[in-house]
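Handoff note, outgoing to incoming analyst
You'll be picking up this chain. Sequence as last confirmed:
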Amino acid sequence: MSHKNKQKSNLNLAIGFIGLVFFIVIISFVFKVFWIVKESQFDGANKFNLAVYDSRGVGVISFSPKEKSISVLRFEDKNYNNLAASLQIPVDGYQVLTNKEFNYANISSGLFTSMFSDTGSREGMTFLDLFRLALFSRTVSSNSIYERKLLKQHSETKKSAILSLTFRDPSILTEGKSIEVVNATDVTGLGNRLTNLVSNMGGNVILVSSDENKKNSKIIYFEDSGYTVKKLSDYLGFPLEKGESSGLADVIIIIGQDSLSKLKF
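Most recent structure output, in case you need it:
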């Protein structure tokens, strides 16, 4: 009798252990899904710019759900180590394909393939982002996919026009907030570089100035924050501050010393 009780006890213990393991696996999976969703950048409604590095060089795919369009920008120069800072353009995510070519002829297929590539890496986005971008790409008409190339012989005016056409954000254009950029560091030219970035995103910079060195970067807004302010804050990593009385601009971006180690422009 005691032998049967012992077997039953061992069986219950084994079932309990298996149940515990199963519970831990389920909890881990739920947390993993939660993390992926939380870290996801592409919301399916607003602009997203993906830089793709493959065996041929580098290109940027700009997805615009509001305009239901995709812009592809390819570069003659293959040596862009820091693409965003070199050209002052907004890049939200990076996909690296080692010894492979991205399929620009079929962007949706190229994204699906890169999701399962074991010879590459991605940064600034999750598996879910790639999946959603791939699904969005399938909904875009071929007539709404624009391909451009940035050549070394292009004039600065031509380059500026190409970058603006590719990266301007329709939501920022619609809000039309006036922006002031203040360089409060000892690094000359940062104000103009940030102005180029904001302008390429569709922002309306009306004033660029410098000030005595300040430790902290920030974005000061008046009235409501809106999409433009949140987008700039998220991209630059600058905290927001509500201003009391507005001056010439609706938004003031102050570049402080704390930003020098993590500049994106």
